[in-house]
C-alpha cells in the first residue's frame, strides 16, 4: 500500500525503490496504490527516478478494456462501463475510490429516474450529474468567481506542489510558478505587493491556509480544499 508509506522527505519510498538498483540485487518491488497517477502526483524526482518499470491501472475484473459495475440494490439491466466514468474523472482526480463513488451515485440517480418510467440504463447524463454533485461546493463557486490572478495563483500552487512533492509551499515559491504561468499566457506578471494581496484575499475566503507571520514571501501556504476540487473548478479556464 504505497500511499501509506508517504512521508514529507519520502525517504522510506526512496530507500524501498533504491534497493533493487543495488549491485547484485535480486529484489523486485511490486507496489500497489489507490492513486492512479501517484508517481506524477506526489513523488519527488529523486524517488520517481528509481522507478524502472511502467505502471498499470488494475481493476478487480477479468476484463481489461470494458468493465461493468452492478450494485445489489438495482436491477441487472443497470449496467454501465466504468471506463466512461474513468475518462471523465481521470483529469480531475487520481483516486480510484472517488471514481467508484461516482459510479455508485450515478446508479442511484438512474434508479430514481427509472421510477418515472424512463430507461434503466446508466448513461453519461447520469454520470455527469453525479460528478457535478460530488464536486459542487461553496469553495468551488468561490474559485470560479475569483479574479484571473487569483485563479492563476491557485494553479501555481498546484504546480509547485507537484514539483516539490509536498502539499505546502512558501509564497515566494508559488510566486515563481505564477510568473512562469503568466509568461506562458503572454500576460504581465503581478508585482510582489499584488501577489501578497492575492494571497491575502484567498486566505480571507478560506481557500488557502496562510501562515500568520511577518515573513511575507517566506510565509507558508496550504490549500484548505482538495487539489481535485481546485482542478475541477478551473477545468474550463
TrEMBL record:
Which Gene3D superfamilies does the record match to this protein?
1.10.8.60, P-loop containing nucleotide triphosphate hydrolases (3.40.50.300), Winged helix-like DNA-binding domain superfamily/Winged helix DNA-binding domain (1.10.10.10)
Q: Give GO MF terms, alphabetically.
A: ATP binding; DNA replication origin binding; metal ion binding
* All copies of domain Cdc6 C-terminal, residue ranges: 154-234
Per the UniProt entry, what are the Gene Ontology biological process annotations, in alphabetical order? DNA replication initiation; mitotic DNA replication checkpoint signaling
Where does the protein end up? Nucleus
Pfam families under this entry?
Answer: AAA_lid_10 (PF17872), WHD_Cdc6 (PF09079)
Keyword annotations: ATP-binding, DNA replication, DNA-binding, Metal-binding, Nucleotide-binding, Nucleus
Would the keyword Cell inner membrane turn up in this protein's UniProt record?
A: no
GO terms under cellular component: nuclear origin of replication recognition complex
Annotated function = Component of the origin recognition complex (ORC) that binds origins of replication. DNA-binding is ATP-dependent, however specific DNA sequences that define origins of replication have not been identified so far. ORC is required to assemble the pre-replication complex necessary to initiate DNA replication.
- Protein family per UniProt: Belongs to the CDC6/cdc18 family.
**Protein's name in the database:** Origin recognition complex subunit 1
Taxonomic placement = Eukaryota, Metazoa, Chordata, Craniata, Vertebrata
> What gene makes this protein?
Orc1
